[in-house]
Design goal:
The chain has 198 residues and is an all-beta fold. 2% of the residues lie in helices and 50% in strands.
């Protein structure tokens, strides 16, 4: 539960979590105005994978913009936060970045924060590459990605990448993030939808 009254009519980031088993899930968020009784429902699908016992695991990326700032609201159950916080998983600089609203981009450059875990050395030699797959045509496009800051997190690490999308036409895409550990040879990937509107 969270009081969203101060944010009526504005975009925001709402974070809520639960401990769940490995598998595919459909989540629903219900926002209800207790004064008027009106409500809105949103939803998303996701997959919770297993942490690889050895090698490399990549988790759901977070797409970020340097334009605009969105307030972050943490949901909780009975006043307790019994999980990792949003910034434990995605430790981006909230003064410089904000999550993309509606996973839609109109600019040429965005950032992505990719959480990962490696069972290799304390300083893993992980490299990243990015591809876009057009949801309508299934055409695959490489995306130039520059490494920015790397973060340590309670469950591993997170790598900030800057993506150049200037040459990508409007459309609905799936963004694939590929990671390779140079020490162990392990590879892993994760993906997230993205809509580009020019």
């Amino acid at each position: 539960a969270a009081d969203l009254t101060p944010y009526i009519g504005n975009d925001l980031v709402f974070s809520s979590g639960a401990a769940v088993q490995t598998g595919s899930y459909k989540s629903r968020l219900v926002v209800r105005n207790l004064d008027t009784g009106r409500s809105a429902v949103g939803g998303a699908e996701g997959f919770v994978g297993k942490l690889a016992p050895a090698g490399l695991s990549v988790f759901t990326p977070l797409l970020l913009s340097q334009e605009g700032r969105l307030p972050l609201i943490d949901g909780f159950v009975k006043g307790k936060l019994d999980r990792l916080s949003w910034h434990d998983v995605y430790p981006y600089d909230s003064a410089g970045y904000a999550p993309l609203s509606r996973e839609e981009v109109r600019t040429g450059r965005i950032a992505a924060l990719v959480p990962f875990a490696s069972s290799g050395p304390d300083e893993p030699l992980v490299t990243f590459s990015v591809r876009l797959v057009n949801a309508a045509t299934v055409e695959s496009l490489p995306v130039p990605a520059e490494l920015r800051r790397a973060f340590r997190t309670p469950n591993g690490r997170a790598q900030l990448l800057e993506l150049a999308l200037e040459q990508v036409p409007s459309g609905d895409y799936i963004v694939y993030f590929y990671a390779a550990d140079g020490a162990s040879g392990a590879v892993a990937n994760a993906h997230i939808p993205l809509t580009i509107r020019r």
